[in-house]
Amino acid sequence: MLRAGICGTDMHIYGGNQPYFEYPRVIGHELSAEVLEADPDSGLRAGDLAFINPYIACGSCVACRAGKTNCCVRLSVLGVHCDGGLTQYLSLPAENVVKADGLDADEAAMVEFLAVGAHAVARAQVREGASVLVAGSGPIGIGVALFASLRGADVTVVDIREERLSFCASHLAVTTEQLGEGLRDRLLNRTAGEMFANVFDATGSPAAMEAGFSNVAHGGTYTLVSIVNARIGFEDPEFHKREMNLLSSRNAQPQDFELVVKAIRDGRVPTRAMNTHRVAFEDLPREMPNLVRSDSGTIKALVEIG
Ligand SMILES: [Zn+2]
Ligand SMILES: [Zn+2]
């Protein structure tokens, strides 16, 4: 293993507040690696730099048969349902190890979380010129905003955290709005009173997920990328009169990974700027509490394993 990204899921696992999680567990699902040994007909060779697709699908369930391995009934995610990549060596099915030609080890470890954003944008079929609102500017929200703007959408990012919004404003082709007094009027102004053809939630907040329904334009689509351990409610007349599409978006599919690799290779992803923190493998037990702190300024921390 070469690099492992640390994300919100890892922080929840570390904090003991990830639902349905069994301990002990080796975490790490945002991974890059060097191939040491591979089946000759796998297309992989010793020395290849690879990124890891951490979703191990069964291949036979109703979702897998429909090509939706990202929501396999028996999905096992590395570092969540089975031991992950914060380790020196890992043995994996060849189809989960993907050559990352043209990327470096840092970039390859950033493919997975960006693919989650790219998948949400693909799910929502965001069109060129569409007005898009992304709530939440963590790494997943940043990925959604980035891939929506690469499709030519007019993207607004809303968050409460000023430093995240200034990151988005300086590194992505998006407009930002801070949560607070008068937000609804500002959003109405931005869209000539129509609100947004595509709204994405990446906040992890049940209240924000519910509030997002009223930001969707008539005929628009609301995509929930967040997962929360809660019930979400909405006013049916508001939902119905819009003929709103309501989608969940889970993980990513191989074509999303491919799209991300191409975008990184083309220099369209600010990977350097997103990688705010680096930690040596042996220092991680000491540094993890600092990365978890909400004032740490972390966008993406990478652990240097090898
Ligand atoms: Zn993650
Ligand atoms: Zn399956």
Calculate the mean pLDDT score and round it.
95
Write the CATH architecture name of the largest domain.
Alpha-Beta Complex
Rough outline: globular
Round the Cα radius of gyration to an integer and report it: 19 Å
The tally of domains stands at: 2
Q: End-to-end span in angstroms?
A: 6 Å
Q: What percent of the residues sit in helical stretches (DSSP H or I)?
A: 25-40%
CATH superfamily of the largest domain, called what? Medium-chain alcohol dehydrogenases, catalytic domain
CATH topological fold name of the largest domain: Quinone Oxidoreductase, Chain A, domain 1
Q: Which stretches of 5+ consecutive residues score pLDDT under 50? A: none
- Major β-sheet annotation: 6 strands, mixed
Q: Given this structure, which CATH class of the largest domain is correct?
A: Alpha Beta
Order of helices and strands: EHEEEHEEHHEHEHEHEHEHEHHEHE
Walk me through what this model shows:
The chain is of the alpha/beta class and 306 residues long. It has helices at residues 8-15, 62-65, 105-109, 111-123, 139-150, 162-171, 183-190, 206-211, 236-241, 254-265, 271-274, 284-292, and strands spanning 3-6, 30-34, 49-52, 55-56, 76-77, 97-99, 131-135, 154-159, 175-178, 196-201, 216-224, 245-248, 275-280, 300-304. It folds into two domains: 3-115 and 252-304, Quinone Oxidoreductase, Chain A, domain 1 (Alpha-Beta Complex), CATH 3.90.180.10; 125-248, 3-Layer(aba) Sandwich (Rossmann fold), CATH 3.40.50. Helices cover 32% and strands 21% of the residues. Helix 4 packs across helix 5 and helix 4 crosses helix 10. The termini are close together. The model has no long low-confidence stretch (mean pLDDT 95). Bound molecules: zinc ion (2 copies). One zinc ion binds at residues 57-58, 61, 63-64, 72-74.
